[in-house]
Design a protein that fits this description.
The protein is an alpha/beta fold and about 450 residues long. The protein has 3 domains: about 120 residues, no CATH class; about 100 residues, Rossmann fold (3-Layer(aba) Sandwich); about 190 residues, no CATH class. It has 17 helices and 9 strands. A 5-stranded parallel β-sheet has the order 3-2-1-4-5, sandwiched between helices. It has a two-stranded antiparallel sheet with strand order 6-7. The chain has a two-stranded parallel sheet with strand order 8-9. Strand 1, helix 6 and strand 2 form a beta-alpha-beta unit.
C-alpha cells in the first residue's frame, strides 16, 4: 500500500503548515512552515513517511488493529517532532522554539491515527470480492477459512472447484460447485471475478479453460501468493509442491546469495565497530551484575542442519549444567543488567562475529537449539525448511511475531519464515533491517 506513504507525506506537510498557523497566533514572528523552515520541514516529512513504513502502518493487518494504530502512530509522531527539533538546529539553523516540535509531533500522530482509523473502517465496511478456490484438499480448506475469517484479505470464498479429486474436506461448510472443466460456467453463475488456485494438479486442466476465463475478465491467481501478500506469512499446512517449485529457484538465483553476503559483511563490520566502542561499559556491567563469563556460548542449528556455536552477551545467571529450554516471560535467571540488554537487543551484538565466520546472516530465521529443533520437527516436519538458508540475527518472523516459547508458537513463527524464504533476496533483507529499528525501539519480541 505505497499510496499510504504518499498520503503520510502529505499529512506531515499539512501538520507542519497547521502548526505554523497555530504558532503564529502565539508568536507572530514564528517562521515555522514549509516556506519558512524548508529544510527542517523536508526532513520531517521524510521522517514521517519513513516512520510509517518502518512501523508497518502501510500494512493491511496492522491497519485493522486499533491498538497497533495508536501505538505506532504515536511513535511516528514522536519521531517527526524529534526530527524537526534536530533538523532546525543542525541541518539549517532556523529555530522555531521548543513548543513547535511538540505541536508538529502531536498533529502528525493525530492525523496518522485519523487516516488509519478511516482506512480500517473502509476495509471492514467494503463489500468483499467473491472468489472460487480451485482444489478440494486440506490446503484449499485452510485458504477458504483464511479468506472468510480475515477482513484484510477483502475476499470471501463461496465454494470449491474440483481438480482431480472431487471429495471435500471434512467439516467444511462450503459447497463443491463443479469440476474444473465447468469453471467458466461457475464464474458466470456466481458472479466470480477472481479464481484462487490451491493445487498444482490444476495447472494442465486450467490451460483448457483459461481463454474463456480471460474473455470474461476473470483473474486467476495463486492462492499462496494472495495469502502471503495480504498476511505476510504462509501457514505451514498450506505448503505444497507448487509453493516449493516456486520458492526453490529464488533461493539459488544467480547473484542473490553473493549480494546478501556483501550486505552481511558491511553491516557486520559497522556493528562490530559500535560493539568495540560499547565493549568496556558492557563488559564491566555484565561482570558486576553476577559471577560468570561475559559471553554466553550455545549450540544452535544453522544452514543445512549444521550445529554451530552462537555467541551472545550473557544475560542470565551462570549455570554450566543448564539444559536446553525456552526462556519464560518472567525468567528468574535473567539478571537486572541482562534484562536491559535483552530489551535493547545489545546482547545480540557478538553474533556479528558469527556473521563474519559465515555461520549466520544479518537476516534470516532465528537459529534454534538442537534438542528443541528436533522436538518441533517431530510435530511440524516443515520446520526443517528454515535451514535452507543461514539463520539471522533479525528476520521477518522476529519483527512480526517475536519470541516463540512452545511448539504451537514456533508453528506460527514458521509461517513468517516460510514467507521470508519465498521472498528471499537482498531487497527483502534491507526491508527487514529497516523495520527492525522500530522493533528495537518498541521493544517487541524480546525475552
Amino acid at each position: 500500500m505505497s499510496w499510504l506513504l504518499v498520503l503520510d507525506a502529505f499529512l506531515a506537510a499539512l501538520a507542519i503548515e497547521t502548526a505554523g498557523a497555530v504558532m503564529r497566533t502565539i508568536h507572530p514572528s514564528s517562521i515555522l512552515g514549509l516556506e519558512g523552515t524548508t529544510v527542517a520541514s523536508a526532513f520531517t516529512v521524510l521522517a514521517t513517511a519513513l516512520g510509517t513504513y518502518m512501523t508497518g502502518l502501510d500494512r493491511p493487518t496492522v491497519i485493522l488493529s486499533r491498538a497497533s494504530i495508536w501505538r505506532r502512530a504515536a511513535i511516528v509522531g514522536a519521531l517527526a517532532g524529534l526530527t524537526l527539533l534536530l533538523a532546525q538546529y543542525y541541518a539549517w539553523y532556523k529555530p522555531t522554539g521548543r513548543i513547535a516540535p511538540l505541536v508538529v509531533g502531536g498533529l502528525v500522530g493525530t492525523l496518522l491515527i485519523a487516516s488509519r482509523l478511516l482506512a480500517r473502517r473502509a476495509v471492514l465496511r467494503a463489500p468483499r470480492v467473491p472468489v472460487v478456490i480451485v482444489g478440494t484438499g486440506p490446503t484449499a480448506s485452510v485458504i477458504a477459512e483464511l479468506m472468510n475469517s480475515e477482513p484484510a484479505t477483502r475476499r470471501v470464498a463461496v465454494g470449491y472447484v474440483a481438480a482431480g479429486d472431487a471429495s471435500l474436506p471434512s467439516a467444511d461448510d462450503l459447497p463443491l460447485l463443479g469440476a474444473i472443466e465447468q469453471l467458466p460456467d461457475v464464474c458466470r453463475e456466481y458472479g466470480i471475478s477472481q479464481v484462487l488456485v490451491a493445487t498444482a494438479q490444476a495447472a494442465d486442466s486450467l490451460l483448457d479453460v483459461m481463454p474463456q476465463l480471460s474473455e470474461r475478465g476473470v483473474v486467476v491467481q495463486s492462492a499462496h501468493d494472495v495469502v502471503m501478500s495480504v498476511s505476510g506469512r504462509l501457514p505451514f499446512d498450506m505448503m505444497d509442491g507448487g509453493w516449493m517449485l516456486d520458492t526453490m529457484p529464488r533461493l539459488h538465483a544467480p547473484g542473490v546469495r553473493e549480494t546478501k553476503q556483501v550486505i552481511d559483511m558491511g553491516f557486520a563490520l559497522a556493528g562490530l565497530a559500535v560493539f568495540a566502542v560499547l565493549f568496556p561499559a558492557l563488559y564491566f556491567a555484565v561482570k558486576l551484575s553476577s559471577p560468570g563469563p561475559f559471553l554466553f556460548v550455545q549450540d544452535r542449528v544453522g544452514e543445512g542442519g549444521r550445529v554451530f556455536k552462537l555467541l551472545k552477551i550473557r544475560t542470565m545467571t551462570h549455570n554450566p549444567r543448564a539444559g536446553e529450554r525456552w526462556a519464560a516471560k518472567t525468567d528468574a535467571r535473567v539478571t537486572a543488567v541482562g534484562a536491559v540488554l535483552r530489551k535493547t537487543r545489545l546482547d545480540e551484538l557478538p553474533q556479528l562475529i558469527n556473521v563474519l565466520r559465515g555461520e549466520m546472516s544479518i537476516v534470516g530465521p532465528r537459529p534454534e537449539q538442537p534438542g528443541i529443533a528436533k522436538r518441533i520437527e517431530a510435530e511440524i516436519p516443515a520446520f526443517r525448511f528454515r535451514t535452507l538458508v543461514k539463520p539471522g540475527i533479525t528476520g521477518w518472523a522476529q519483527i512480526n511475531y517475536g519470541y516463540a516459547a512452545s511448539v504451537e508458537e514456533s508453528g506460527v513463527k514458521l509461517s513468517y519464515d516460510l514467507f521470508y524464504l519465498h521472498r528471499f533476496g537482498p531487497r527483502m533483507d534491507l526491508d527487514i533491517i529497516m523495520r527492525t529499528f522500530f522493533v528495537m525501539l518498541a521493544r517487541i519480541g524480546s525475552r
